[in-house]
Design a protein that fits this description.
The strands form three sheets. This protein has a 13-stranded mixed β-sheet. It has helices at 2-14, 20-34, 123-136, 284-299, 317-326, 340-343, 372-384, and strands at 16-17, 38-48, 57-67, 76-82, 85-93, 98-102, 107-111, 142-147, 152-158, 161-164, 171-174, 179-185, 192-198, 203-213, 232-235, 255-258, 263-265, 273-279, 305-311, 332-335, 351-355, 361-366. By secondary structure, it is α+β, with helices and mostly antiparallel strands. The chain folds into two domains: 13-237, Lipoprotein localisation LolA/LolB/LppX (outer membrane lipoprotein receptor (LolB), chain A, Clam), CATH 2.50.20; 241-384, Glutaredoxin.
Amino acid sequence: MKSSLIVFILVLQSVIVFSQKSTEVLNKTLSNLENINTASYFSKSSFSAPGDTTKFHSYSSYKKIFMDEKDSVYPANVYSFLPGDTNKLEYSFDGQLRTDINWKTQTATFDTVNRKSGVMLPFFIKTKSLIHYALENREDVKIHLTNYQDSIKIDFLFPEMMVEFVGIEPFVKESENNSSYTIWVDPQTFLPFKYIRKMPHQSSWNKIHDISINEELNIKKNIQVYIPANFDIRSNENNRLNPKEMEGRKAPLFTLEGIYGDTISLNQIKSKVLLIQFTGVGCGACHASIPFLNRLSSEFSSKKFELICIENWSSNKSGLKRYAKQNDIDFKFLISSKNLGKNYKVPAVPVFFIINKKHIIEKVILGYKKGDTDEKIRQILEEMI
């Protein structure tokens, strides 16, 4: 009993809630992050559905980062290489041009449009933005600091708020749920090396190692040098998918497997109005739409209507089953095939296709906004059924 009490006291002493000590640690870590001009490291990221530790997707890379403080939106140039061969570039962003190189399909895609919203923040910028925001908004965050022998663990909890760091300025909005981050800091360098992020719609992990700071990085400025001569070079400017073009056309056929092993084909669904949602586990807007879709499935259950959700981001059946159970999904939940998204010209999720009884696509709705999208879809369905 006495030993248990001692352990409890030691643990209690190690947890600090925005005390002078935690402020000192955060300020020292932030200062070191702000002094980074270049960085290179190996990185591994994983993603899962909320409340589920099963990884839906993992991604490893070797990164070289050049900070660019002049850019107020995305203050870094990023070069990402294959971890097994650090001479093979797979992704880069230099502030204006985004390049994606796929070594399996032997293609390289250039995007000359400045699409910074589609570029993930590098590890050190994300953690720097998190610490800076927490220090500036102490009333909105609960911070716990725990000292270990080889690391300092810092927990950030944002009660009833969703705080995301997708650019140098965080995305913040009120939420029925909490969001949280945990970072681990090296007590020798006072630099973070791991974080866990938990959002209402997705959890993710990122850990880096073999870190070099402020050393000269060898990068060829002409990105085409990294692309083999036999690769197919494309431009996203001329190949942007626009699902609105599908309105008035026959819906492309499909035969897909459901998460419970059943198989559904479009040809099986006859004399019914069909609503198809292309979705992705971990997509915030997709997750937000589930309560509406559940209500819709119930409201129109006795009528000539079918609702199908097609998962685009994961094929992990066990994880998708848990996701469906956690969200009380009671409509058909199918796993997409390789080319189905392209056939329907899906650029991102969620996208809704409303299809009439003759399998003609009547309406395409991009994205989801609670209330507005609900009303729009319900009104169209009531007119068609």
